């Protein structure tokens, strides 16, 4: 089971993401959350999740800065960014920093499932390759 961390400054958005799907059906479990970027970074460093799903615009530290900091610190988590905006510049920067995907709010179940499938394939490949981070499985 891969561990997911959710970050969004809107409590309803966090609740929606948590309840949109049965995470375990796709090999994931939500193991943490935060309502701002700085809090998210602190908890991500402590819990070392396999996947981070973060809003782009949050107080303290935005999602792009969070992604860049995660990469600068060498954390191996995959990252999906979520935004209420379809601004190409956000998506371009997210891809530059190695983002696995960019979801537009409101997040649709089918789109989330497609990204989870993609990310699970990436994580499975990292895990079976023997290199890098060892991923936790239940």
UniProtKB/TrEMBL annotation:
Fetch the Pfam families from UniProt: Response_reg (PF00072)
**Which part of the chain is the Response regulatory domain?**
3-120
Q: Which UniProt keywords apply?
A: Cytoplasm, DNA-binding, Phosphoprotein
> Which CDD domains does the entry mention?
REC_YesN-like
Q: Which residues carry this modification: 4-aspartylphosphate?
A: 55
> Record's InterPro entries?
CheY-like_superfamily, HptR, Sig_transdc_resp-reg_receiver
* Entry-linked PROSITE patterns: RESPONSE_REGULATORY (PS50110)
Q: Which SMART domains match?
A: REC
Single annotated GO MF: DNA binding
Instruction: Output the GO biological process annotations, alphabetical, semicolon-separated.
Output: phosphorelay signal transduction system
Q: What does this protein do?
A: May play the central regulatory role in sporulation. It may be an element of the effector pathway responsible for the activation of sporulation genes in response to nutritional stress. Spo0A may act in concert with spo0H (a sigma factor) to control the expression of some genes that are critical to the sporulation process.
Tell me the protein's name: Stage 0 sporulation protein A homolog
């Amino acid at each position: 089971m891969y561990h997911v961390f959710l970050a969004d400054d809107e409590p309803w958005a966090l609740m929606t993401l948590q309840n949109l799907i049965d995470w375990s059906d796709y090999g994931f479990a939500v193991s943490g959350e935060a309502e701002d970027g700085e809090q998210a970074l602190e908890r991500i460093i402590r819990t070392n999740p396999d996947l981070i799903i973060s809003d782009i615009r949050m107080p303290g530290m935005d999602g792009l800065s969070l992604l860049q900091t995660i990469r600068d610190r060498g954390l191996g988590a995959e990252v999906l960014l979520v935004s209420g905006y379809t601004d190409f510049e956000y998506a371009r920067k997210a891809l530059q920093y190695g983002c696995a995907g960019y979801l537009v709010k409101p997040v649709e179940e089918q789109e989330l499932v497609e990204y989870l499938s993609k990310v699970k394939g990436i994580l499975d490949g990292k895990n079976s390759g023997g290199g890098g981070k060892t991923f936790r499985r239940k």
